[in-house]
């Protein structure tokens, strides 16, 4: 212990730098422990400052610091989604998912606690930030599908639902993945999620002309032997064995 | 108003009947208003009893009554999932979804408030009940796929993830459906969700022998011209236009 009356030797930081440092330390702590297991003293200790100094920056205490850390994590996560608008859509989605799963991997405990709910820190503020991230993910996907948020053209309800429910599926898959000790591998999970997106869009395209046009445009960007081709190759035998279910048959032939 | 000092003329009910009545009235109120807009006085008025009587049955006040109403709704919902183990799986899933969507329709505000979170009543007790319903839905589906909970045989991680993430997708679709003034129709939403299940299982079957065997057995129960056949018929042109992506081609022919 330092002798009483001696202030810790703080590094000189600007107000902005100190605030950023406290948020960074808080995020590291909240990433790997349950929110109820992180105290302001822990944050102060990790940052090498006193508890009153933490309170000076975050008068709302732990709840305020939690939401600031969450805000910072949300910004980081939204950066993960941004990929260049070129190349096959399956590659773009795969890149964004790689970064997203790396984020989930490195913030595992905090990610679970946040999304599984029931914690003391589950305020409406925290929920609003989570919803904003979901919205950002949907906006990014829709931008790649030809509907930039500022573009004025909005997707119809069926396409919108396909995109939004896939995002929920990704979230649920991430939580299950964490519960299952991160198995199967992140790479396999990413590939499966890309395929689920393609399959969901195809199902929706079967009922909705807009989605069919979007899917057609997306397929035109895919490369032979790429992930969509690999998926179709693997689905071929499955679909072939079900060809007799189609009235009028597919492709004129019944599978052996 | 009754004159002061006159106790309301309660109907004579047994303790169990009275408790059930209070829960029923509370559930009706919580179904159509936000939790914060329902007071114990409202429940007392709806049941035709005094506020102290409500407290006698629910000393924990509104929170306890909310969780009891949620418990009752969860039991009702779990009954929705139970369908006979015969006939095509797409029909069984469709029946369960019909009942589920009718439940969502008739408990709309409460359903949204519960699942969107951020409300004062979002305790760990409420979360545990919601998770239990999700687990019951997964158990029911897995039973129909040949994995009854008591059967000892457990599904592998890939099949399990496909089922669990589809349930999340159903939940998200229900919330979006409520936000979109219940459009498209419940019938269309149900059909789309059944198709999403089939497509998700097919994608998973492409990577997992267990899921492929389960899908094969499920397809054998489907009827020509049924929902799966209709889906495949609609997907035919979509898949055909992507056949050139498959290395080695599907069915030997490139689409025009």
Supply the key terms.
homodimer, 256 residues, 11 helices, elongated, disordered N terminus, disordered C terminus
How would you describe what is shown here?
Two copies of one chain form a homodimer. The first copy, chain A, has 256 residues and is an all-alpha fold. The first copy, chain A, has helices at residues 15-32, 40-47, 51-57, 61-81, 89-106, 108-116, 124-144, 157-179, 186-205, 209-221, 227-240. In chain A, helix 8 (157-179) runs antiparallel to helix 9. Chains A and B meet through helix 7, helix 8, helix 9, helix 10 and helix 11 of A and helix 7, helix 8, helix 9, helix 10 and helix 11 of B.
Beta-strand share of residues of chain A: under 5%
Ends of chain A: how far apart? 79 Å
Query: How large is the radius of gyration of chain A?
Result: 23 Å
**Based on DSSP secondary structure assignment, what is the total number of beta strands of chain A?**
0
Low-confidence spans of chain A: 1-5, 250-256
Described by its quaternary structure, the protein is: homodimer
Largest sheet of chain A: none
Global outline of chain A: elongated
H/E order of the elements of chain A? HHHHHHHHHHH
Query: Largest interface, and how many residues on either side?
Result: A-B, 73 and 73 residues
Short description:
Chain A has 256 residues and is mostly helical. Helix content of chain A is 67%, strand content 0%.
SSE diagram, text form:
The structure is a homodimer of 256-residue chains.
Chain A: H1 15-32, H2 40-47, H3 51-57, H4 61-81, H5 89-106, H6 108-116, H7 124-144, H8 157-179, H9 186-205, H10 209-221, H11 227-240
């Amino acid at each position: 212990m330092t002798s009483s009356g001696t202030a810790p030797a703080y590094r000189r930081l600007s107000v902005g730098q100190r605030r950023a440092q406290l948020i960074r330390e808080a995020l590291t702590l909240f990433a790997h422990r349950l929110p109820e297991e992180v105290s302001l003293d822990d944050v102060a200790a990790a940052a090498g400052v006193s508890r009153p100094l933490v309170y000076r920056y975050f008068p709302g205490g732990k709840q305020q610091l939690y939401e600031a850390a969450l805000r910072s994590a949300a910004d980081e996560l939204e950066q993960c989604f941004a990929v260049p608008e070129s190349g096959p859509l399956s590659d773009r989605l795969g890149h964004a998912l790689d970064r997203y799963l790396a984020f989930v991997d490195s913030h595992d405990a905090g990610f679970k606690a946040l999304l599984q709910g029931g914690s003391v820190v589950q305020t409406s503020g925290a929920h609003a930030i989570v919803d904003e991230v979901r919205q950002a993910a949907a906006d990014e996907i829709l931008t790649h599908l030809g509907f930039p948020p500022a573009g004025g053209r909005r997707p119809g309800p069926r396409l919108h639902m396909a995109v939004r429910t896939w995002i929920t599926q990704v979230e649920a898959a991430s939580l299950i993945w964490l519960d299952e000790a991160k198995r199967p591998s992140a790479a396999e999970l990413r590939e499966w999620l890309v395929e689920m997106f393609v399959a969901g869009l195809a199902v929706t395209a079967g009922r909705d002309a807009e989605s069919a046009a979007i899917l057609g445009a997306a397929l035109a960007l895919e490369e032979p032997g790429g992930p969509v081709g690999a998926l179709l190759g693997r689905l071929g035998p499955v679909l072939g064995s079900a060809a007799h279910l189609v009235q009028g048959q597919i492709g004129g032939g019944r599978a052996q």
